[in-house]
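Morning. Coffee machine broken again, so started the prediction first thing and wrote up yesterday's gels while waiting. Chain of 330 residues, entered below exactly as on the submission form.
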Amino acid sequence: MLRDTLKTLLSAYGPSGNEHAVAEAVKGLIAAHVDSMRVDALGNLIVEKFGTDEHGKRIMFSAHMDHIGYVVTNIEENGFLRVNNVGGISLNLSTARHVIFENGVEGVLYCEPAKGEEKAMRHLFIDIGAESKEDAEQVVQLGDMAVYAPDYIELGDHRVASPAMDDRCCCALLCELLMYLDEPRNTVVGVFSSQEEVGVRGAKVAAYSVNPDIGVGLDVTAWGDTPEVKLPAVELGKGAAVKFIDRSMIASPAVRDALLKAAEDAGVPAQREVLPFGGQDGSAIQHTRAGVPAGCLSIPCRYVHSPVETIDMRDMEGALKILLKFVENA
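Came back before lunch.
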């Protein structure tokens, strides 16, 4: 079930600011399992599963729907599309890539010769097969966004690779949590957030609206288990990672320790994550209103912000058990 949910969400188009197709896919999966559902002004999908205790806590989990992409900035006379990045794009990973627009138009992302200059975004273009500007404008307009085309790959028995794994894997995790929860004592609010890749924008307004007592961001983290990559000290297949710190937050000790205890109680491994860069929705929850105790549970992911972001399903399965126990213990 978890793998099927993941595949469904990975196939949806959803660059930052254009997450509506992902939200619709999520609705289709969880509508029968939640008590309320709404989309706010920034495109966050906010759902609630009411607790049985009227004096119980409000626990907010947030996983972002958006992923990195390219926005069309100019259409040249010969039909090529000039683009700029939406989110953290690596120029080294942006050559000879298959991309797709929301309307299904496909293209090839390539880089012109830099001619002695340092390669920059201005050297990138998308070839959609158009022979003129007029030809291209029939199907693509300025401001349209392209993303890496969906490409789900199974690697061995447990690992899968795909574009948009950051953060659709955690959207899938949150969907499964809401499906499995049966009459929780505390109210659980699931936020499928928008525009995380451009500054955790969606989670900021969602957290203010939800006004939770406890918050947990759900996101991928980097890896340290491939050749010449040793930090962070996180490995695929060794369990979900409980965040201690990243550039955007120092996890609240009470929430951090509760996640570690939930892993112990659930009998699944958990890693300790110290990330010297990056940020995620947990920071937005922590900083809302007068402050909220917040942490983050991360899925180890190789090759983040690439077309082959890779995770281990055993980490996903363990993370689900951790979250179920965390809600039970809260």
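The mean pLDDT is 96. Going to sketch it on the whiteboard this afternoon.
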